[in-house]
Sequence to fold (141 residues):
Amino acid sequence: MFEFHGWATIRVPDPGLNQDRRQALEAVALERVREAIRAADDQFSLFEVKMTGNELIVLYAHGLRNHRYRNVLELFQWVASELPDSYGLLYVHDDETDAGKENAFQVWRLARGTLSEMSDPFLSPCIPTLEDGWPDEPLDE
Fold:
């Protein structure tokens, strides 16, 4: 199983830009993110980018798939590279990942142009934090 939930605030550089120039850069950034979403979208997951209040651009990504879906990580990596002033979090649970991580969420932090993988302290370990194990399996402690 591959589950992911994430968000990113999309920001453009603001070295004292006037409002018209800033709005033009935000419109270009919004369209670029929409294009990146089209490349990542699989029609099973939810990807959306919206201009919200106070001209804040927010990217949402949610999905639950049978197998690993690298496109979501590639999308967040693209945001880190192309819009480095953006920030956000992507939570991923991948039971096909490296040994020792299959019972845990990993958090991908997007900040200052870098996408960094970190351990999750809130929902992990998935068993027993979120659900019981199979009856014949011992619980992790």
The domain at 2-129 is CATH 3.30.70 (Alpha-Beta Plaits). Strands lie at 2-10, 46-51, 57-65, 87-94, 105-111, 114-119. The helical segments are 19-40, 70-82, 126-129. The first strand starts at residue 2 and ends at 10.
